[in-house]
Write a structure and sequence with these properties.
By secondary structure, the chain is mainly β. It has a single domain, classed as Calycin beta-barrel core domain (Lipocalin). Helices cover 0% and strands 57% of the residues. It is built from no helices and ten strands. It has a ten-stranded antiparallel barrel with strand order 1-2-3-4-5-6-7-8-9-10. A hairpin with a 2-residue loop joins β6 and β7. The chain is globular. The protein starts with 32 loop residues before the first strand and ends with a strand. 38% of the residues are buried.
């Protein structure tokens, strides 16, 4: 993503630390089946826009999550994003995403999940996903920085629909 597509990144992130975070016994399983992410994206010096992502996830025989998303950013042609994430230790996950330049790291912190990765154009992305009560919805919040300066952000909800 060049300041805009990445923000709608799935999967993904939460608002402030919250007591409403719900611990998941298997965080990867949240993305199995069909998920929908609806976010509002704000890029500096531009008007906010809406983004919708439909995901299809499955757990492979190796235990890793493969998530294929159709990203629909308002005013742009839809495109496909692919994630491959696996558990690498207690509360830690790692993998790849098609728009990431290098590895994606995920850490569980007090029931929330922090995604970190780099993108082309010297962009650093931090995304928080906070599972909500009931286990079928999560709050997502992402921040994109370039050379340490915030250049874009997104907020929204991820919901399991099948």
């Amino acid at each position: 993503m060049l300041l805009h597509p990445t923000i709608a990144v799935v999967a993904l992130a939460s608002a402030a630390p919250t007591a409403s975070a719900v611990r998941l016994s298997d965080p990867l399983a949240f993305f199995v089946g069909t998920t929908e992410t609806l976010t509002t994206v704000k890029v500096i010096m531009k008007k906010s826009y809406r983004a919708r992502t439909l995901g299809q996830g499955r757990i492979g025989s190796d235990g890793a999550l493969t998530l294929i998303q159709r990203v629909e950013d308002e005013g742009r042609a839809p495109f496909e994003r692919r994630w491959h994430i696996r558990r690498v230790g207690p509360g830690r996950f790692g993998g790849s995403m098609t728009e990431a330049k290098g590895p994606v790291t995920v850490s569980e912190i007090k029931g929330r999940y922090r995604f970190r990765f780099k993108m082309k154009g010297s962009l650093s992305v931090e995304q928080w996903i906070t599972p909500l009560a009931g286990g079928r919805t999560a709050r997502t919040e992402s921040t994109v920085r370039k050379l340490g300066v915030k250049v874009a952000s997104s907020r929204g909800l991820i919901r399991k629909i099948a």
